[in-house]
Amino acid sequence: MAQPTVEFDRSLLGKDFPAGSFTITKEQVLAYCRIIGETNPLYLDEQEARRRGHPALLAPPLMCPLFARDLDRPQVKLNFGRMRMHAGQALESFHPIYAGDTITASVHLADVYTKTGRSGTMVFIVWETVFVNQQGERVAVSRDSHMVRE
Amino acid sequence: MYYLDLHCHSVSSDDARATVEQYLKWVQMLRKRGYQVDGIVLTEHRKFDQGIDYSWLSRQYGTTVLKGSELDTRYGHFLVYGVNHHLLQRFNFADVGLDALALMQEAERTGAIAVPAHPGRYGIGLVEHLANGLDLSALRVVEHLNGGSRKGENERADALVQQAGLLGTGGSDAHFVSAIATCLTEFPSPIRSAEELVTALHQGTFRAVRLEETRAQVVK
Amino acid sequence: MERYFEDVDLGDLIGPVERVATDAQVLDFCKVWGMAASNRFTSREVAQREGFPDAIVPGIMGMAFLAELVTRWSPSLELKKLDVIFRQLVPHNRLLKLHGVVTDKDEEMGLLEADVYLDLSDGDRMVTGKAVFSLPHREG
Description:
The complex is a heterotrimer. Chain A has helices spanning 26-36, 41-44, 46-51, 63-68; strands at 17-23, 58-59, 83-93, 97-98, 102-117, 120-132, 138-149. Chain A is of the alpha+beta class. Chain A contains 4 helices and 7 strands; from the N terminus they run βαααβαβββββ. A 5-stranded antiparallel β-sheet of chain A has the order 1-5-6-7-3. Chain A has a two-stranded antiparallel sheet with strand order 2-4. Chain B is of the alpha/beta class. Chain B has one domain (2-219): Metal-dependent hydrolases (TIM Barrel). In chain B, the strands form 2 sheets. Chain B has a 7-stranded mixed β-sheet with strand order 5-4-3-2-1-8-9. Chain B is globular, with a radius of gyration of 16 Å. The N and C termini of chain B lie close together (11 Å). The mean pLDDT of chain B is 95. Chain C is 21% helix and 35% strand. Chain C is built from 3 helices and 5 strands; from the N terminus they run βαααββββ. Chain C has a 5-stranded antiparallel β-sheet with strand order 1-3-4-5-2, with helices on one face. The longest helix of chain C has 13 residues, at 59-71. At the A-C interface, helix 1, helix 4 and strand 3 of A face helix 1, helix 3 and strand 2 of C.
């Protein structure tokens, strides 16, 4: 098995890039919960959320990386592979997210590395995204890796 | 009998999420449930953690902790036990296309041993390379039981072991805490160092077992 | 059922919960997500053109199922971190078994960790993950 020489734009590594913003609506929260089977009243019932001390309906934390898909990311310019797949995702939450919040994201390329497995040679591209709400509070950090194979 | 998990990954590997201490806590829980697990060998992907010392954790949890590597070669992944400075100088462990034959020979020459990992794994395991005409006449030991195998893959490894008359090790290939020690290698006597492990693998008196079999041993 | 930090031990099981990601649910999920109607997740034709055997369940939808598996374990549970590896493609319209096991208990930080899994009903493991969460203490 000949091993490819993998090239990409190394100047991106570790640099922060503004990635845009999105607003999470109450309708999106309710639709998400209905599809996933979420039953926690904090995500479904605004009155219950307020009764328990929250300023609005809570949004499940996973809604941040969900919307990160449409954010702007610089081109990695990888010279390898044709098939891309989501290989992994980590989300760390620091502050509640509420329906109506406008979230601003910044991304940086955390890592690009090569390994072999059942699919042959694979290159992994790892992005880290920091999400900040309209008050400037860091609400979550996600790390998503994408596998590129031949 | 002495039971070692010869294949696992800690957070030092890119795709693993368990710390060594978490593995050792889990081993303690398994012991409380009647299983016998005496130690683990960390085989991090494409690296050897030379500077990391697990001896205090080993003492704290009463569990042997040894270090090896899992390297990517042109003929699949190889577990290397007894990693030494000769091997570290000769091979770039991060290379995903290492020369497997050279690795085996150099390991043998320098007091280590290189063992094909999950040889039955589809797409990458040694079985596929042997089927394509690879001649590995020097091969004596392969990983027989791998806890991360999909359906049919351990069966392919078993067929290789039986047909070629090879010796077989067992390892969980754990990347997450609860997978540790699902497969192990049974040795007749304790093993406390990488050197003792290499010696035992050369002596050939070991076999691959599943965790459940260690419980039967304890009950006996 | 409310659970308390003090009552949880290593080896405690979370779930199982069963789910099926139907064609309609995946389509609805993609709409929330803002994805175009026809993509590798909703169209067999597009999926096959991209080299997949059939339309697949989005990785993040499987992750969302796992997040819900953990948060439903106790009403006051706070999920701090979820870290998953997508091992195999999750197919539509198949029974999915979600389950987990508590793997660590950090008394000092008041945090618990669990391994979480998304398997097909025949045991094939599709997604593996680690969840970090907190539970209330009995003394309040």
